[in-house]
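Holo prediction. Input below; ligand is NAP.
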Amino acid sequence: MSLAGRVVLVTGASSGIGHATALAFAQRGATLVGVARRRERLEALAEACRGHGGEALALAADLGEPGAAERVVAETVARFGRLDVLVNNAAISKHKHLYRTRVEEAEQVLRVNFLACVWATFAAVPVMLRGGGGTIVNVSSIAAQVVPPRESLYAASKAALDAFTHGLWSDLEGSGIHAGLVTVGPIDTEIWDTLEEPSPYRGRRHPPEVVARAILEMVEKRRYELTVPRASPSLVAARWIRRLFPGLLRASLRRMDPVPPALVSAARERAQKGLRLGEEVDRDPS
Ligand SMILES: NC(=O)c1ccc[n+]([C@@H]2O[C@H](COP(=O)([O-])OP(=O)(O)OC[C@H]3O[C@@H](n4cnc5c(N)ncnc54)[C@H](OP(=O)(O)O)[C@@H]3O)[C@@H](O)[C@H]2O)c1
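Structure of the complex:
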């Protein structure tokens, strides 16, 4: 698939992987629609995209709100008449121990990281069917397969996205709509600054452009699954250990970030007071 003149919608385009991906599409002559909450950043991105000769539109939206994904797809079609590529990339982190997390936060993670992708897909499929086809790229995480401590909700949102994408492979058969899943390892973006609790990860973080290149390849060559970075020994090892020695993986994850006894006793105290998870956590000593 040639990218010149294609209408591409990238969610989470105001920073990191989405920003790099939007620029990469624009450099290849695509018409770019960037979506995120921070309008000024999107306007700057649109300006940079136009600098590559194509058209660009900035659409500020909170994709966690029901109706927002449908609205941005509708605005894209109203402006450019079609949608060829949807990149579901926007997401929030949730690196926080379960005892400290409110159930409302769980819902928010699932809305932004998973349901927004579903909503955008439901809005895009009829448009792509009318246009004769298209591509939907879902940006997932290695965390869906090897779940880091304190990331059960983030990982669950990505695992749901993985399963949804696998289902699209069957259900979109014969439609001309291709779906692809990019599984991302550690990438140097702002998402690391948003972690609510410290991460024990000290390894290398790769530049977001490597993911952007994989996304373009997925669209151009109709790839189903790509992992980025491709030949990372730690990612490959983690996946194999999970498959062959799950007990060993559980033990090493626990060792990597052990649960402090004070955290458990504080959670138990709050539970004895009848509090819900995540309530009155600022008095937590750990
Ligand atoms: N970086 C990594 O190590 C890594 C690893 C695995 C997977 N990933 C995945 O890669 C994707 C991109 O993340 P990134 O690393 O590039 O992080 P990032 O720099 O923090 O980018 C996240 C993007 O999502 C947007 N966003 C967040 N909440 C939103 C909402 N409610 N509505 C609309 N847009 C929203 C943010 O824009 P606004 O704040 O302006 O809304 C931002 O543009 C995510 O799906 C992430 O899970 C990243």
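The two ends are 52 Å apart (CA to CA). That is the main takeaway for now.
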